[in-house]
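We modelled the chain as a single entity of 202 amino acids. Its sequence is:
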Amino acid sequence: MHPKVKICGMTSAETIQTAIKHKVDYLGFVFYPKSPRNLSPKQATILIKDIPNHISKVAVIVDETDQFINYIQKDFDYFQLHGNEDAKRIREIKQKYNKKIIKAIKVIDEQSAKAFKQFEDEVDMFLFDSPAMEKTAKFDWQILNKLKITKPYLVAGSININNVDEILKYNPYGIDISAGLESSIGIKSSKKIIEFLDKVKS
């Protein structure tokens, strides 16, 4: 079984089509003003319109209000929660919008990784990431082997074509890549997308 691949921080129609052609599983769209990959809801709606149904569309949000979630929810299959959302808030979002939830867990060490346990009943998937959201840093992937994770999970944090074999040794459900496929900050490279997906999916 090939791992699932989520490419996050999509900002152009061209790279979206390239990713689709080369068998991406999830496409992530960032709604976080501090991010160089931030989109307005209007930009996202335009980008999303040509994505086929078998590819999951993920909205990446950070401690967002219901008002904002309401505004974007029709376009997405998943909400990826990257802030300080607690189990109660996650339950609330899931019930209110009937969407699948990915909860990001910021991993510094084994202890911090164990934070996932408090959300296990509420989420559909986890994302284990380095704490530096969007900055280049990776955590010790061996930590994941020590956790008894009952839900599917993606691994992120400075993954690129040169180190992806290392993470695949741990058999994650999937990998989440963003900056590792960029030609400059916030700009994805079609060439890098093709090389990466062809390597992981072949």
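As a brief sanity check on the tokenised model: The first helix runs from residue 13 to 21. The domain at 4-201 is CATH 3.20.20.70 (TIM Barrel).
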